[in-house]
């Protein structure tokens, strides 16, 4: 297991956003986290990346207890993330943005070494033609790719993808799914939060379902789409329920 959480709990005032959630994630797999609005997905991501410390529970990265490590130390160990609201440095070009990611990565590269990684990553996510475009001139789909490139420039072992498919049209979703599968083929573990259920189902090896902070199910995509508890949790949102049973 590359990442393991046991009994993780976090509250905001009286609201328990994540309730004693445990999980184990296999190396080089795609682990999807789904759940209705307010289920605790982003809060759990923030616990994993180190933005929040859980009140109870332990987080292990390759058997090392990282529960109390700050975000930047987790990044150096190999845990990178994208953000739901993409935040590129708008006045910098694509290459400059990715350079920033590479220079703050775990390997302390000098500029020349970083440049090589940056060019590889930009090519990998399909941004070569936009290399010298200012980040704030990119459309949403390219901004999402840039966000991904910045995370990959850290040469991580785990990437946390926070709704990288949100706001993309079906063709862009398919291209992004291809990129995510290529990341997995390169030996990187992927943990993704998504609202687009059919897309998550298509590529995840294992899916964990949260509802009101609790883990209500875990299984393969087909197990999850037939799980009674999951179907009930999604009934409150007919659009999501339809996605769950296979409609697009
Ligand atoms: N910083 C915060 N302060 C107070 N309450 C918060 C905070 N962050 C999240 N919450 C609450 O915790 C619960 C879980 O929120 P979270 O954002 O983790 O859910 P989510 O599953 O990511 O939802 P969504 O799919 O809408 O992004 C919600 O009830 C939310 O209102």
TrEMBL record:
Keywords of the record: ATP-binding, Nucleotide-binding, Transport
Biological process terms in GO annotation: D-alanine transmembrane transport; L-alanine transport; L-isoleucine import across plasma membrane; L-valine import across plasma membrane
UniProt-listed Pfam families: ABC_tran (PF00005), BCA_ABC_TP_C (PF12399)
UniProt-listed PROSITE patterns: ABC_TRANSPORTER_2
Keyword Nucleotide-binding: yes
Domain ABC transporter: 3-237
Gene Ontology MF term list: ATP binding; ATP hydrolysis activity; L-isoleucine transmembrane transporter activity; L-phenylalanine transmembrane transporter activity; L-valine transmembrane transporter activity
Signal peptide (residue range): none
SUPFAM superfamilies for this protein: P-loop containing nucleoside triphosphate hydrolases (SSF52540)
Record has ATP-binding as a keyword: yes
GO terms for cellular component: plasma membrane
InterPro entries, per the entry: AAA+_ATPase (IPR003593), ABC_AA/LPS_Transport (IPR051120), ABC_transporter-like_ATP-bd (IPR003439), BCA_ABC_TP_C (IPR032823), P-loop_NTPase (IPR027417)
Superkingdom in the source lineage: Bacteria
SMART domains: AAA
UniProt cross-references to PANTHER family, sorted A to Z: AMINO ACID ABC TRANSPORTER ATP-BINDING PROTEIN, CONSERVED COMPONENT OF ABC TRANSPORTER FOR NATURAL AMINO ACIDS-RELATED
Protein name, UniProt field: Branched-chain amino acid transport ATP-binding protein LivG
Organism, scientific name: Desulfurella amilsii
Lineage summary: Bacteria, Pseudomonadati, Campylobacterota, Desulfurellia, Desulfurellales
């Amino acid at each position: 297991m590359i990442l393991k959480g046991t009994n993780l709990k976090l509250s905001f005032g009286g609201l328990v956003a994540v309730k004693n959630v445990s999980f184990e994630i296999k190396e080089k797999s795609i682990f999807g986290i789904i759940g209705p609005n307010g289920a605790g997905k982003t809060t759990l991501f923030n616990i994993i990346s180190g933005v929040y410390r859980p009140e109870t529970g332990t987080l292990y990265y390759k058997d090392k207890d990282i529960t109390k490590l700050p975000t930047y130390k987790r990044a150096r160990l190999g845990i990178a993330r994208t953000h739901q609201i993409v935040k590129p440095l708008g006045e910098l070009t694509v290459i400059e943005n990715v350079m920033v990611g590479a220079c703050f990565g775990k390997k302390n590269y000098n500029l020349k070494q970083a440049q090589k990684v940056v060019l590889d990553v930009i090519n990998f996510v399909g941004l070569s033609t936009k290399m010298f475009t200012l980040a704030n001139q990119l459309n949403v789909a390219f901004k999402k790719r840039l966000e991904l490139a910045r995370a990959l420039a850290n040469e991580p072992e785990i990437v946390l993808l926070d709704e990288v498919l949100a706001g993309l049209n079906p063709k862009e979703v398919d291209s992004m799914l291809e990129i995510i599968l290529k990341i997995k083929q390169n030996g990187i573990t992927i943990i993704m939060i998504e609202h687009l259920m059919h897309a998550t189902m298509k590529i995840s090896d294992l899916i964990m379902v949260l509802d009101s902070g609790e883990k209500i199910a875990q299984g393969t995509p087909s197990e999850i789409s037939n799980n009674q508890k999951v179907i009930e949790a999604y009934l409150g949102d007919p659009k999501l329920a339809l996605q769950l049973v296979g409609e697009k």
